[in-house]
């Protein structure tokens, strides 16, 4: 028995580059070939056709198959003839030409600009061919087409085997069974059939590997083993390529190491990991290769390529009684004309309509009767489809893809009489009838064209013997699958037409032309800074990276933002069932994958925690102090941990063991004494989350245990605040270059006070990236310069206001195969579509510099959250190593609680920060000094502020402080152009009253604070906030009170007009009670910090530099009486003399409790002694505080730096600098006790 034939393909690598002998013949329109040899760039002459038009080409015969790696061109010697742009076609047998493709496009090469310089183009991928056609596209307008050329490459040899569809070849290994960890399989194939098996091998244990064609796509199926009961499924199938039935050679390389596989088809590689848990491929000693019809015999069919302006005109039988046309086509466009012919009494159109083959027959002698038939669906899928139209006698039949069962038949009212001329793909415009239905020409390929049941000889058409054509390429099908490889990222669905592709990003969590940009924010903290409130959100920690977004709960109620991931375990879950070893295993799953959780815990969050609790009865936990633990939990990386909540790694204790308060001092867990509960927080985030809990002491009679594993909670976002400060025009930060990707995105935040500077730049061998800011008179511009493969793209985005305002701004850049995008602050954007022939990758071979490295002025300011292709760059670490750059962001306006109080705006500076208090009722370095009137006894005081633009308020906030000994009086009165009003008054007994009159009520709605005398000379603060019917009152440090307007009351404060402070001097319809009881003589005392919504009237009245609609009556003098905030702590009800429920309390301002002479002598003496003692103590305390905590006036800070014990950046500064506190004005002279 003969040894089976071994099938193998050998390819020789090019080692030495040398000139290939050129055998050139010249094809001119009259087909008279000329011949010449070895035209060198340094020699004389060159090729120039007789006619200079787009139909000329030069064909090179290399004598045998060669591997071509480069081409060099030069103009014709000493002439004005050169070719500036060209394309290359190649073929093995001078038929079925294939265009050279690069980056998924029919590539256009840049040629010469003169006749002497040599331009060499390296091929991105080497081509294997014998024949090459040089196709001139553009040439010197003042000369003719001309070229001298060289091709560079090396010899190529390989064994070739033809398959007729029934043959099979076996490859036998030396041993009968192969258990393989590593495989490398390479082969090349060509075919015209879209389905068939190339290679198959299997083993007795169910392992197999198979390579096959399905609908002209290549499928690799592999199974390294499945479990007997099906719990582990090892089958894995990956598809690659498209349109592989084009009769051209395709290269396949399969590399496997254990479960990791690289699957390469024509230089496009897919990396994947097989399913299951096995690593070996167990095969029998035979691997089979087979196919339906693999043959290197040249195909008899010749394709025809049509573009949007093409047509092919062919003759047929005239005056015939049968119309018979058939053809095969492939296209991506849903609509287009396939064939048109005129009849003696009408015409026939055959074409595609929304993916269906449709026939329109128009009969003119029957009053323009139209007959329509259609068949098939989704035929614009790029596959070959056959169409046969037959009209005979009084009926017509349409058959698609040879399916006779689906043939559509219809009757026609006349006898067909053919016209004898057929147009394919389009018409030449000289037809008797204009096209009524197919306005669009066909774009795609046709072959096997039959007219009157005769195959059209396209060679004769090419030689001009029959028919005519325009813009048609014969012997070539230049169809391109623009969705292979799929440029739609993150699972986006790709669809295409002939010219372009589009991505459907629905449901992916990403957006953009290629589904590259994240749709969601990277963390809860970013949502919080956008003004969002607590709730469920999708987050995407790695942005455009491979990790998909996932849903979390964001808690923004505290100063620190918490991110919560919930799990499937209910609180107090009973632990009942156990295995044969007496252990119960509880699996904990989360609403995120392990990769997503790991990204959140290890890279994004500052800290994480998870609550665990174990309630027990006769069920031990850790078996402390020295026993083997009965229970453990499994965390990240499947590691076991033997500590419990409240303890730490390596400490086999529970919380009570750490705090020394366990029920039984002899154990370190309460449950180790078989009673109570052990609970606490797991805080070591590198071990979290809990994925499994194994409970091992529940099998005893009477034992009981309940387990609680709370949600995973993480706080902060380290990457979002990773920042660096650039303090010198020559400073820059250096990073290694980032790898080129099909899509590249860059995102960062910045703030600066400088109008000019370079953000970042990188210059590579064929790529350049440059982003900078330029200031103009009233605006700023962000400029992007991007050069990829010689294509220069420049984008600019204009900001309507200057960007050097010391506020955070965001720059986002994305470059993909379809477009380049520049976005500023999420609102201003510019988009530039990529040219049709675009490079897929941004390849940066040199380093990346933040700032300028080429002598330009660097960006000055802060930059944070730099992310490129989903990867966060550690700015702080690199800045610590770089002179002129500081870690973090100088100043303190970026995060957490800022020291600009009461609504003040923090303004960033490079050696600190300042507070802009212009829109508040406060002054001072931190907007804490309340503007006040002086206490005066020389008459009443009144201030009026005229409002404009306020109308129909449903929400308002009134805030002010006061101190006085005088009552009654009006503190604040807000009027309107209607009868609506708001008044805050002190009544005769010193208590506070709020009067709301919003319409709908007979009398104003009043709120009486009867239990406190406010006219006691002490400072008091009042905050009144209304939202529709709900009124909230915050008085001093007392608890917040809530009141509700009656249902009959209106909720709109209409047409707000004026704010009166101290007294009302307005005519018109005013609350009579207000005027009679409280308006005379007017307020006497200290009034400060008055703010109504965004209006600060008192501050405007006291600042001479401010222009405001304010008028004053009486004596109004600035004072420091309102400079100190209220410092009296809240009293308990037992000690509050103004609390109505205090036992034995006497209201001191009731007239019947006073002596006749108005003096209580005992009380006065005791009160005087107490006052002197208190005053002395306070003076001593003030002296100590003022000299111990004196403000230094320096705020050099580093964001995200500070004491380890601090909860935030502010706390870090306070920990590091004990002298940091708000100053007490040296001019203070008044104290209120």
Automatic annotation (TrEMBL):
SUPFAM superfamilies: Concanavalin A-like lectins/glucanases, Fibrinogen C-terminal domain-like, Galactose-binding domain-like. GO terms for cellular component: membrane; paranodal junction. Disulfide bonds join 862-889. Residues 479-516, 890-928 form the EGF-like domain. Keywords: Cell adhesion, Cell junction, Disulfide bond, EGF-like domain, Membrane, Phosphoprotein, Repeat, Signal, Transmembrane, Transmembrane helix. One of its GO terms (biological process) is cell adhesion. Residues 301-477, 722-889, 931-1121 form the Laminin G domain. Residues 47-154 form the F5/8 type C domain. The chain crosses the membrane at residues 1164-1185. This is Contactin associated protein 2b.
């Amino acid at each position: 028995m003969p040894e089976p034939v071994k099938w193998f393909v050998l390819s020789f690598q090019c080692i030495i580059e040398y000139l290939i002998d050129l055998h050139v013949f010249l094809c001119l329109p009259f087909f008279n070939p000329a011949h010449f040899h070895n035209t060198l760039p340094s020699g004389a002459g060159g090729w120039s056709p007789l006619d200079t038009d787009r139909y000329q080409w030069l064909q090179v015969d290399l004598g045998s198959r060669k591997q071509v790696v480069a081409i060099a061109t030069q103009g014709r010697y000493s002439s004005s003839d050169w070719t500036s742009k060209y394309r290359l076609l190649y073929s093995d047998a001078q038929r079925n030409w294939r265009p050279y493709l690069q980056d998924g496009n029919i590539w256009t090469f840049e040629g010469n600009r003169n006749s002497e310089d040599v331009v060499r183009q390296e091929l991105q991928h080497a081509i294997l061919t014998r024949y090459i056609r040089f196709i001139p596209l553009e040439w010197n307008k003042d000369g003719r087409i001309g070229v001298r050329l060289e091709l560079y490459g090396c010899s190529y040899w390989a064994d070739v085997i033809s398959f007729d569809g029934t043959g099979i070849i076996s490859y036998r290994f030396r041993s009968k069974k192969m258990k393989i960890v590593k495989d490398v399989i390479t082969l090349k194939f060509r075919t015209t059939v879209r389905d068939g098996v190339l290679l198959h091998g299997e083993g007795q244990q169910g392992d197999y590997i198979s390579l096959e064609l399905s609908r002209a796509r290549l499928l690799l199926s592999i199974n390294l083993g499945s479990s007997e009961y099906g719990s582990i499924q090892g089958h894995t199938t990956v598809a690659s390529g498209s349109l592989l039935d084009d009769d051209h050679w395709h290269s396949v390389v399969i590399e496997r190491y254990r479960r990791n596989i690289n699957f390469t088809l024509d230089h496009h590689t897919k990396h994947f990991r097989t399913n299951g848990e096995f690593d070996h491929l167990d095969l029998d000693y035979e691997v089979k290769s087979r196919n339906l019809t693999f043959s290197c015999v040249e195909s008899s069919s010749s394709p025809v390529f049509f573009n949007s302006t093409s047509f092919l005109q062919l003759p047929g039988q005239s005056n015939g009684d049968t119309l018979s046309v058939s053809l095969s086509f492939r296209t991506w466009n849903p609509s287009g004309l396939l064939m048109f012919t005129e009849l003696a009494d009408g015409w026939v159109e055959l074409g595609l309509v929304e993916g269906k083959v449709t026939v329109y027959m128009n009969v003119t002698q029957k009053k323009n009767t139209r007959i329509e038939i259609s068949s098939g669906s989704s035929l614009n899928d790029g596959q070959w489809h056959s169409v046969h139209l037959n009209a005979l006698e009084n009926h017509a039949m349409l058959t698609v893809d040879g399916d006779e069962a689906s043939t559509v038949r219809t009757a026609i009212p006349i006898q067909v009489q053919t016209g004898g001329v057929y147009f394919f793909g389009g018409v030449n415009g000289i037809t008797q009838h204009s096209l009524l239905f197919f306005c669009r020409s066909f774009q795609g390929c046709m072959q096997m064209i039959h007219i009157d049941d005769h195959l059209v000889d396209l060679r004769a058409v090419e030689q001009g013997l029959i028919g005519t054509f325009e813009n048609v390429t014969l012997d070539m099908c230049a169809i391109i699958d623009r969705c292979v490889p799929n440029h739609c990222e993150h699972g986006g669905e790709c669809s295409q037409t002939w010219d372009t592709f589009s991505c459907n990003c629905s449901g992916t969590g990403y957006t953009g032309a290629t589904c590259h940009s994240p749709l969601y924010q990277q963390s809860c903290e970013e949502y919080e800074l956008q003004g969002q409130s607590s709730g469920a959100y999708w987050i995407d920690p790695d942005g455009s990276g491979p990790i998909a977004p996932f849903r979390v709960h964001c808690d923004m109620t505290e100063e620190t933002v918490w991110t919560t991931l919930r799990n499937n375990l209910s609180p107090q879950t009973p632990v009942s069932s156990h295995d044969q070893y007496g252990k119960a295993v509880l699996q904990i799953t989360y609403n995120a994958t392990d990769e997503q959780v790991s990204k959140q815990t290890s890279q994004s969050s500052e800290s994480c925690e998870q609550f665990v609790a174990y309630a027990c009865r006769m069920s031990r936990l850790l078996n402390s102090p020295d026993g083997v633990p009965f229970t453990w939990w499994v965390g990240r990386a499947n590691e076991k941990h033997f500590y419990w909540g409240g303890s730490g790694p390596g400490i086999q204790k529970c919380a009570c063991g750490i705090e020394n308060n366990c029920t039984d001092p002899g154990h370190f867990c309460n449950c180790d004494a078989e009673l109570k509960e052990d609970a606490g927080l797991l805080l070591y985030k590198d071990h979290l989350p809990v994925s499994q809990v194994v409970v091992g002491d529940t099998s005893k009679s009477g034992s009981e245990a309940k387990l609680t594993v709370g949600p995973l909670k993480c706080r902060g976002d380290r990457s979002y605040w990773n920042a660096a400060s650039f303090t010198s025009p020559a400073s820059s930060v250096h990073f290694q270059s980032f790898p080129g990707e099909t899509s590249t995105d860059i995102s960062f935040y910045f703030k600066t006070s400088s109008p000019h500077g370079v953000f970042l730049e990188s210059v590579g061998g064929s790529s350049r990236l440059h982003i900078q800011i330029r200031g103009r008179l009233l605006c700023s511009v962000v400029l992007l310069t991007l050069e990829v493969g010689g294509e220069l793209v420049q984008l600019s985005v204009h900001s309507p206001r200057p960007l050097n305002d010391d506020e955070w701004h965001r720059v986002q850049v994305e470059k993909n195969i379809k477009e380049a995008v520049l976005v500023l602050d999420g609102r201003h954007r510019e988009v530039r579509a990529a040219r049709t022939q675009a490079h897929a990758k941004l390849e940066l071979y040199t380093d990346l510099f933040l700032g300028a490295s080429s002598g330009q002025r660097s960006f000055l300011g802060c930059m944070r959250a730099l992310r490129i292709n989903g990867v966060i760059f550690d700015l702080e670490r690199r800045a610590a190593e770089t002179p002129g750059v500081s870690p973090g962001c100088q100043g303190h306006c970026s995060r957490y609680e800022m020291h600009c109080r009461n609504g003040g705006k923090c303004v960033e500076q490079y050696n600190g920060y300042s507070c802009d208090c212009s829109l508040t009722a406060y002054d001072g370095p931190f907007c804490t000094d309340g503007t006040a009137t002086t206490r005066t006894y020389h008459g009443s005081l009144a201030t009026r502020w005229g409002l404009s633009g306020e109308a129909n308020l449903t929400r308002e906030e009134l805030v002010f402080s006061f101190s006085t000994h005088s009552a009654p009086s009006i503190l604040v009165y807000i009027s309107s152009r209607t009868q609506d009003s708001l008044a805050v008054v002190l009544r005769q007994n010193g208590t506070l009253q709020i009067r709301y009159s919003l319409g709908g009520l007979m009398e104003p709605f009043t709120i009486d604070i009867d239990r406190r005398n406010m006219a006691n000379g002490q400072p008091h603060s009042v905050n009144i906030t209304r939202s529709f019917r709900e009124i909230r009152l915050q008085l001093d440090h007392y608890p917040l009170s809530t009141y509700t307007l009656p249902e009959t009351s209106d909720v709109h404060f209409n047409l707000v007009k004026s704010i009166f402070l101290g007294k009302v001097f307005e005519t018109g319809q005013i609350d009579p009670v207000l005027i009679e009881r409280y308006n005379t003589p007017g307020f006497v005392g200290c009034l400060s910090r008055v703010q109504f919504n965004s209006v600060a009237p008192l501050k405007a009245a006291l600042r001479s530099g401010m222009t405001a609609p304010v008028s004053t009556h009486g004596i109004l003098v600035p004072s420091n009486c309102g400079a100190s905030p209220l410092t009296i702590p809240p009293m308990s009800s037992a000690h509050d003399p103004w609390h109505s429920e205090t036992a034995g309390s006497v209201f001191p301002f009731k007239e019947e409790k006073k002596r006749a002479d108005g003096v209580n002598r005992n009380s006065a003496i005791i009160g005087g002694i107490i006052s002197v003692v208190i005053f002395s103590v306070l003076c001593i305390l003030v002296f100590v505080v003022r000299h111990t905590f004196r403000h230094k006036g320096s705020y050099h800070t580093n964001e995200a730096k500070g004491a380890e014990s601090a909860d935030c950046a502010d706390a870090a500064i306070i920990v590091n600098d004990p002298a940091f506190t708000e100053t007490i004005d040296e001019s203070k002279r008044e104290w209120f006790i």
